[in-house]
Please model this.
Amino acid sequence: MRKLIESPYVKEENHRFYIITQWAYVIGFFGHAAGIIQFKELGISEMVYFNIFYSVPCFAAAFFLNRSGRHNAAFTLAFLELLFHQVLSTYFMSWEAGAHFWLIYLAALCFFNPSWKTPLQYGLLAIILLSYVYMYFSFQEGIYLINERGLSTLNITNALITLTIISLLVNYYSRATRKAENKLKDEKAMTSSMLDKVGALFGQQVSEEIAQELISSEFEFESKQLEVSVMFLDIRDFTRFADTNEPNEVAGFQNAVFSELIQIVKENKGVVLQILGDGIMAVFGAPVINEDHAENAVNAGKKMVDRIQELGREGVIPPIRVGIGINSGKVIAGNLGNESRRFYSLTGKNVIIAARIEQLNKIYGSQMLISGMTYDELKLKPEVEEIGMIELRGIVDKVRIFNVL
Model:
């Protein structure tokens, strides 16, 4: 029987609805077949023929329609059969026979089919309610006379069957609700776990958008090679400032500057990996891949220079200069450390190049230098001054350097 119930045409999202309705059609088929005998014993020939030529074929057709994936057609066919059957049963046997109890069950079924739109559901409910009222006022006496004991038996049988079906429906929805709630709890726990991972690796230096993307993509932190842009920023003469001012003034200065710099990195889809006391290290294009990493890094650098100058003019911080170095290329990015301490880190030649470029600002009196690799990646070229091919400490090949004006 199980093989007969299962079907290759049923989509995963419809599987639960399909299984429940398929068993209901089987029960409906045999129930109405048994009804033929019952109505024959009561002498109601019209209902005998109705069951033979309409009810039983309806449930058989519903079964095979449902199995072929036509769930709406099957459900509608069975639904209408039940409605017509109860109206006719009440008409022939009277209100006291209790067939009207099935309309209560049908009212619940209006909302059982997930594919039915809300207007259709409430429209069918209105039809059932009107049918219920009409049957009450019109069919108090039936066409056939059935003795009182027979009516009582039919009444209690229909009532018990209806109560059982409604209880099963409530149980179904209750279990489905609990399952959905438990699944939601599991998803929240998973999200919380991923947030903890993101927070442990990046702290507050990652934007909410990147954090959510890491979570939604179930990002794994294994080391991998990525195409990124790396930025190093240094605050000029910070050591002298720290030596000549009180610790609380130094801390206030750092908070004012770094909060602005970190925010600019976030706004440009970057991540601050390290705060170095007098500078920061940031990456664009990792851990979330971003093809516009060079564009974002240069835009962030230009905004940093402008914002530091604004803060100086506003008197928030003393007038200072920064040195920014940006390089683009392949790096190894991943999670380093052990169970007690992990951090997201970048390694490779291109990271060293970015650090060396930042140091060149002291030589050229500039505030923002980028490599030729970064410049070539830019779709919209900024105003620059080409410094030339420069030899960098620890790097075999010379690197083309541009000063961003």
Notes: The first strand starts at residue 224 and ends at 235. Residues 2-181 form one domain. The chain has a mean pLDDT of 88. The chain has two domains: 2-181, 204-404.
